[in-house]
Amino acid sequence: MADRIRIGYFLEDRGHETFLKALVNRLAVEKGLKTGEWANDVRSASGGKSIEAYRGFLKDITRPRATNPFNILIVASDGNCKGYQEKRNQLLKFAEKVKLSRTDTLVLAIPDPHIERWYMSDPQAFNRAFGSGVLPVLPAYKCEKSHYKKIMQDAIAPPMSGLCSAAMNTARELCKKWIYTKQPKQTLRLNILSTILATRSSRSG
């Protein structure tokens, strides 16, 4: 379908990929899009190289006669205890440096400190999705990534080896139940929604 909304993803790992694709799916359906009306194109989702891939993409599309193949760009990078605002500013500066023509189509997903915290940020939804009967108890803030992975692993029943084995397969169900109550989760939701709606409106107008 030539008129599909094309979404490009620049992500750090499979945890980002599965969560964000599931979230986009939920929001697109909420706003009346039907399956097949958007297409996901993951350009990076391994090795923590989302920023490197994103910068390379920006360089490519700003060359003479080059075009941006995407209607929406989703760039994800863990805050890694640098904080949401600092990472957001860093990613925006890369787009501004190359004079990206449509920064309004750029959606920045910055789980701080790590994506595992987003999976567990709504304990009730997490429990309903995984059926573990155990609510994850999150510390106020921890920079060690392995800390959140262990909490998540301990809260999944039966125990699985790592994030990818269980969480990846139920991320869509989790996102269906996820409640958007705090920043920057609410900001991410609104950014994706507004970008999807603006894209659909411009393509149908």
In short:
The protein is of the alpha/beta class.
Average pLDDT confidence is 81
Give the structural class: alpha/beta
- Strand count, sense and closure of the main sheet? 4 strands, parallel
Question: What's the SSE pattern?
Answer: EHEHEHEHHHHH
Number-wise, the strands total 4
Percent of residues in helical segments?
40-55%
Q: In the residues, how many domains can be counted?
A: 1
Assembly level: single chain
- In order across it, which strands form the biggest sheet? 2-1-3-4
Strand content: 5-15%
Low-confidence stretches: none
Q: Ends: how far apart?
A: 18 Å
Task: Estimate the global geometry from the Cα principal axes.
Answer: globular
Radius of gyration, in Å, reads 17 Å
Task: Supply the number of helical segments.
Answer: 8
Overview of the structural elements:
This protein has 205 residues and is α/β, with parallel strands linked by helices. It has one domain. The chain contains eight helices and four strands; from the N terminus they run E-H-E-H-E-H-E-H-H-H-H-H. A four-stranded parallel beta sheet has the order 2-1-3-4. Helix 1 runs parallel beside helix 7 (163-177), helix 1 (14-30) packs across helix 8 and helix 5 (123-130) packs across helix 7 (163-177). The longest helix has 20 residues, at 185-204. It starts with a strand and ends with a helix. The model has no long low-confidence stretch (mean pLDDT 81).
